[in-house]
Specification:
Length: about 70
Amino acid sequence: MSTTDTRSPQNVTTTATTFSSTTDLTSALIRAAIAHGEHENRTGAADPNWPNWYAAYMVAEQAGTEPPL
């Protein structure tokens, strides 16, 4: 017995983060770096998990959701 996925494309939710150019990616990284500096100032400590923070920030920014604190 096989199952067919009958969802229409409009009902598909994606969390993919894409950039149309290296310039767009560079700009996103710069924004993340600035925001991360503010994050470290708030916490008063260096963040050894900065790659995870950057990734969460960039995905949230593209999705239009709240960035990490």
